[in-house]
Amino acid sequence: MAQHDMTGGVILGISAYHEDAAAALVVDGKLVCALEEERIRRIKHWAGFPSEAVKWCLRYACIGLGDIDCVAVARDPRAHFLGKIRAVCSGGAGFGFLKDRLRNTAQVCDVRKELSRCAEEGKKALKAELCPVEHHRAHMASAFYYSPFREAAVASIGGFGDFLSTMQGHGSGNRISILNQVAYPYSLGVFYSAFTEYLGFDKYGDEYKVMGLSASGRPEYLGRMMEIIRLDSNGLYRTDTSFFDFHRIGRDRTESSLPPGLTGCFTEKLTSEFGPPRKIDEPLTVRHRNIAASVQAAFEETLFHILNHLCRKTGSRNLAFAGGCAQNSLANGKLTRMTPFERVFIPPAAHDAGTAIGAALTVWHKKYNRTERIQNCSPFLGPEFSDDEIFAAALSRGLKAEKLPLEQLVEKTAQDLNQGLIVGWFQGRTEWGPRALGNRSILSSPCFPGIRDRLNTAIKKREDFRPFAASVLEEFASDLFDDPQESPFMEKVVRVRQDRAGLIPAVVHVDGTCRIQTVSSADNPGFFQLISAFHRVSGIPALLNTSFNEHEPIVNTPGEALECFARSGMDALAAGSYYIRRAGPT
Predict the structure, then answer these.
(1) How far is CA 21 from its chain centroid?
(2) What pLDDT was estimated at residue 125?
(3) b/e sequence 43-66, b meaning 16+ C-beta within 10 Å
(4) Could you give the CA distance from residue 433 to residue 353 in angstroms, rounded to a whole number?
């Protein structure tokens, strides 16, 4: 077993019984590893208990259950319990919702039994203290303690968790003080999810499709949207819950055998106000596009209202932001223009998986009263595989793999990309969070406009309006983009310079914007080296970067990468030291 200083402690963070279940491990003040359960289970947004992620974390750190000092769970069933009861009694929430919450609470309280199933030592081996951390406090910790800030305004905005949808505070040193909050059923996240379902996107997490669609519409319905969301003078908001059903019927978030769906989020009142909802296979009309644009505009108006007030209240020019709504990269790219905040930090996993790290960091600072910041805030926290494992996986599938030194592998990949080939890039440790940041990526040149259609139709097999991101060398970002903010986790959308849009057409969305990842040699040396090589041969300091998957979680293992490569239209795969070219025409 690994040796550790008991003053530092071994803290296992868990996000459980909620979409995007995950586990993270903090040892002696170092963030050692973190992994979403979906990466192992191969079911997107996997809910339930993250048993496989826990097992992997323990194996990676070479520790057992008996070595864990604290289990930080990103839920506190006791939080706001009276509020839940009052909501049901007043009709603000239905008994289906209460039944759902009570079932969920019972499972959260039985974490010890679930953990004992994760290891051979058995239940007696687990002597760790169970430390519940309120959902939104865990979100806020995942942003502030992960950030470079010693002082910042802190916000968590999402769907709901522990009966809150929004929480605001101020972080200083190793403490986060809570300033105000919005109680469920008022929820900006549910507002966006309800319209996502209304527009015919029925999978949990499909909100990003509405974001992409909004660029091709006009916000003609914004006034009507802002009658559903009512902005309060104190910087908070309320929603007209008669348009939504989620708070009455509840949703079983413990089922993990199928991908979560969006069902029953809106009422007939929404349909009577905005017309019939779009069926899943129905063509997208101008009305649908305008509704999407209006939803995005209403979301942004509400978000900026919240954050402008928070900035005035804290006096800080730093913002640490997490929660499901912090995944809205369109709004994120406007934060420094539409609020007084000068620096914005959004963690790589701002969604619910990130609360596993947030809970662990909360316990690290609070229980152990540690003032120093956690070590290792890299997003590359998952499994890594050796060249031998990669070669064995290729050999077992009958694929010819050429082993090359890193410099040759990078040059060969850059040359092929410059010729218009699409290459899978499988290197190092798996990314933490929903976005491929250069270790589990599908890459192409941004210079060929036809590549976007080929990626959407032949490889990703998704809607043709979906845009792609650009990974750009940090020092050259201003050459291609207006106001290119630091965006190491691909969390912001910015405008492409008009005089440069013709150089990178494959990553320019219909509204002239692009989601960007700024890449530095310190963050990811190998990926930085590849983009630099492409820059030398093409004159463009950026690559089109999309996640290495196809209607599945991002690939994790060599076998998954090779299977995705084999069934897709990718031309080549660079995995570890090996380069694999597809035989015959694609």
Answers:
(1) 12
(2) 74
(3) bbbbbbbbbbbbbbbbebbebbbe
(4) 7
Residue 584 has pLDDT above 70, yes or no: no
In a domain, 526, yes or no: yes
Task: Look at residues 168, 336, 299, 105 and name the one whose alpha carbon lies nearest to residue 221.
Answer: 299
Residues 227 and 335 in one domain: yes
Work out the average pLDDT over 266-279. 96
Cβ neighbours for 124, distance < 8 A, ≥ 6 positions apart: none
- The rounded distance, in Å, linking the Cα atoms of 182 and 192 is 16
Centre a 10 Å sphere on the Cβ of residue 92 and count the other Cβ atoms it contains: 18
Residues 462 and 520 in one domain: yes
Can you give the pLDDT at residue 156?
Answer: 98
**How many domains are there within the chain?**
3
Residue where a domain stops, chosen among 366, 396, 411: 366
Give just the sign of the alpha carbon dihedral 141, 146, 149, 153. negative
Residues 557, 424 share a domain? yes
Q: Is the dihedral of CA 374, 367, 101, 51 positive or negative?
A: positive
pLDDT of residue 323 exceeding 80? yes
Structural tokens at position 255: 């089922």
- Residues 175 and 267 occupy one common structural domain: yes
Residue 141 in any domain: the answer is no
What is the sign, positive or negative, of the torsion defined by CA atoms of 552, 554, 559, 561? positive
**CA–CA separation, 17 and 383 (whole Å):** 23
* 235 shares its domain with 361: no
Q: pLDDT tens digit string along 501-519?
A: 999 999 999 999 999 999 9
Cβ(196)–Cβ(209) below 8 Å = yes
Last residue of a domain, one of 318, 333, 366: 366
* CATH number of domain containing 446: 3.90.870.20
Q: Which residue has the tokens 């899978």?
A: 424
What would the pLDDT profile of 83-116 be if each residue is shown by its tens digit?
Answer: 555 555 555 555 555 555 555 555 556 888 889 8
Instruction: Domain of residue 167: give its range.
Output: 147-247+262-346
pLDDT-derived band at 252, boundaries 50, 70, 90: very low
Is residue 530 scored above 80 in pLDDT?
Answer: yes
Among 159-168, 247-256, 346-355, the minimum mean pLDDT is found in 247-256
Task: Residue 332: give its domain's CATH number.
Answer: 3.30.420.40
pTM of the model: 0.93
CA 223 to chain centre: 30
Helices (H), 81-206: 81-89, 95-108, 111-116, 135-144, 188-198
318 with 211, same domain: the answer is yes
**Per residue in 7-43, pLDDT tens?**
568 999 999 988 999 999 999 889 999 999 999 999 9
- What is the helix (H) or strand (E) element at residue 519, kind and residue range? strand 513-519
